[in-house]
Write a structure and sequence with these properties.
By secondary structure, this protein is mainly alpha-helical. It has five helices and two strands. The protein has a two-stranded antiparallel sheet. Helix 1 runs antiparallel to helix 5 and helix 4 packs antiparallel against helix 5. It is elongated. About 25% of the residues are buried. About 5% of the residues have low confidence.
């Protein structure tokens, strides 16, 4: 008698060729959203315009660099993981919590950030969280093939 699996074993894989447009789209959208958050923070929440780590070149540059690392992780997970979407989501959540260390260290004085205050801290946390949600959502929906 043949046994049938009780749970479907869908093996979703990442479509590397889709990354040619999904990757840049993700980076551009995340950078734009971070700049909108930064602009709102400066205009309405009393965040100083001159704070080094919230200057436009720094925000855009760090977004691009860290999302390139996220894309590399995405490719490696797609290549080596048995359940790549689930594994990438877990990895991204861990990376998000690790990324919170920089604002925490800046707020506590362990990382030199002159002018850091609680408003800036929360803006940075929001930027990290929104970027993570956007990145994981776009990559795991648009660059996956069943």
């Amino acid at each position: 008698m043949a046994s049938t699996p009780t749970r479907p074993t869908s093996q979703e894989g990442f479509a590397t060729r889709k990354l040619l447009w999904v990757g840049p789209l993700t980076i551009i959208v995340a950078a734009l959203v971070n700049m909108v958050i930064r602009t709102i923070a400066v205009a309405f929440f009393g965040v100083p315009d001159g704070f080094t780590y919230l200057q436009a070149p720094f925000v855009i540059g760090s977004t691009v660099v860290f999302l390139l690392v996220a894309l590399l992780a995405f490719v490696l997970v797609g290549r080596f993981a048995r359940r790549p979407v689930r594994f990438y989501r877990i990895l991204a959540l861990v990376a998000l919590f690790v990324s919170f260390l920089t604002p925490v260290m800046a707020l506590t004085g362990l990382f030199p950030a002159p002018g850091m205050n609680l408003h800036i801290f929360w803006i940075m946390i929001v930027m990290h969280t929104v970027t993570a949600i956007l990145t994981v959502s776009l990559l795991t929906t648009l660059a996956v093939e069943p």
